[in-house]
Specification:
Shape: elongated
Helix content: 40-55%
Strand content: 15-25%
Number of helices: 14
Length: 423
């Protein structure tokens, strides 16, 4: 069954703005048209503060230009009406020509001022004056009230949208969330609630980052709309990556002798592998001819990413490796892992084996430097950031400060909100 959406803060703020517009209209003795105030207020109720301010500016510019041009047309048509004896049809035709022609300089003015986004509102205000209210007894008074109604609505909308209860921000804490089934849902997407609330906290200055097994390339697409300011911990702690600058800030590679030992075992057992190498902020993935279907599928699907560079050639001897990766059917992966156990490499290196979520029935094996851990990278990152405390969120029991159920992505944001902004 489809989940029924909750009544969110934006909906409540919209209703509050409408009510306040009514209140102000009563205090003004109902001298204006509350409808115009309400339209302006609703336009300013946005998900982000930056969008609210941008929309308010657009509405103010549009209203001012529309009112000025509307006043000009009122004067011009009033002149024709007083100087010439026109029939109803003639007067209608004159108005139509003047109003239609005035649209050109009106829109051109918004372009000249580099405020093209305000052109629509300029035209709405202008036409409401010269078309709907041209026949009013005192159309000039309407121009003033139209302007004043809009300014009142903007003031109410902006005030309501910026209002929040006073609280203290936890700027001394680094918040770290997992990615798969933690912040992202099973379809590997971020829902609208998480996106809006996370961006709001990021705009307010929360120290927030991600920690994931995946490489940076797998973070860029689902988190493209998130305004991350801090680098992310990727490759299970092997790298620290700046998603804004597209730079690897830190990496923990296999030692040369460790790389050689791994290569000897891989070659002796004729195993296909992917050697992940970081050179000048680029991820190069050296690989041999695939020896199973899943490897061919993986290469075909992942090489489309602009953040991965697959190179079908032997790994150069002088290149340092961040990690080796293999993917095989689960039974074969188990046998390969035991080979590394027999050579005691599972004690010397960090060797992970886990089922593939993307390719069911298969398992990954990843081989890292044993110091390439999330905890080590977090400690290094904390020193760079100058914070001592962390709050971690994930789905693995015993590993995080806050445990969330897989797929309960909204809970991550609720945890962040409770710990970031509190009374």
């Amino acid at each position: 069954m489809k989940k029924i959406p909750k009544v969110g803060a934006r909906i409540i703020k919209s209703a509050a703005s409408i009510a306040l517009c009514y209140l102000v209209d009563l205090l003004r003795g109902e001298s204006g048209i509350v409808f115009y105030s309400q339209l302006s207020a609703l336009w300013c109720i946005q998900s982000y503060v930056s969008t609210t301010k941008k929309n308010a500016v657009q509405r103010i510019i549009g209203t001012c230009l529309g009112a000025v041009f509307g006043l000009f047309v009122l004067l011009l048509t009033g002149f024709f009406k007083s100087r010439f004896l026109l029939s109803h049809f003639q007067y209608y035709a004159v108005n139509a020509v003047i109003i239609s022609a005035t649209i050109i300089p009106l829109i051109w003015t918004t372009v000249l001022l580099k405020k093209k986004q305000a052109s629509y509102f300029s035209c709405v205000v202008f036409l409401s004056i010269v078309v709907i209210h041209m026949s009013d007894e005192n159309s000039f008074l309407f121009v003033w009230n139209r302007f004043l109604d809009t300014m009142i609505g903007i003031a109410i909308g902006v005030s309501v949208n910026l209002f929040h209860l006073p609280g203290k921000k936890r700027t001394d804490v680094l918040f770290i969330s997992g990615l798969d089934d933690t912040l992202l849902n099973k379809d590997y997407h971020l829902n609208d609630f998480c996106r809006v609330e996370l961006n709001r906290m990021l705009d307010e200055g929360i120290n927030f980052t991600l920690s994931t097994m995946r490489p940076p390339a797998a973070i860029m697409e689902p988190m493209a709309d998130i305004r991350l300011k801090l680098p992310v911990i990727a490759m299970d702690g092997a790298v620290l990556y700046d998603t804004r600058e597209k730079r690897y800030l830190s990496k923990i590679e296999l030692e040369p002798e460790e790389k050689s030992q791994v290569m000897e075992i891989l070659e002796a057992n004729s195993l296909s592998y992917f050697a992940n190498v970081v050179i000048d902020d680029s991820l190069l993935i050296y690989y041999k001819t695939p020896d199973c279907q899943v490897q061919e599928t993986l290469i075909r699907e992942l090489r489309r990413s602009p953040y991965r560079n697959y190179i079908k050639r032997p790994l150069p001897e002088n290149e340092s490796v961040v990690y080796f990766m293999m993917i095989y059917p689960a039974e074969k992966a188990e046998r390969i892992y035991k080979i590394f156990e027999q050579h005691s490499l599972t004690d010397k290196l960090k060797i992970l084996k886990y089922p593939s979520r993307d390719y069911p029935g298969n398992s990954y094996i990843k081989i890292f430097n044993r110091y390439a851990t999330r905890s080590n990278m977090i400690e290094s990152f904390k020193r760079k950031l100058g914070v001592e405390k962390t709050i971690t969120i994930g789905t693995v029991p015993g590993k995080y400060d806050y445990l969330v159920e897989e797929g309960n992505t909204n809970e991550v944001v609720h945890i962040l909100k409770r710990n970031w902004d509190f009374l």
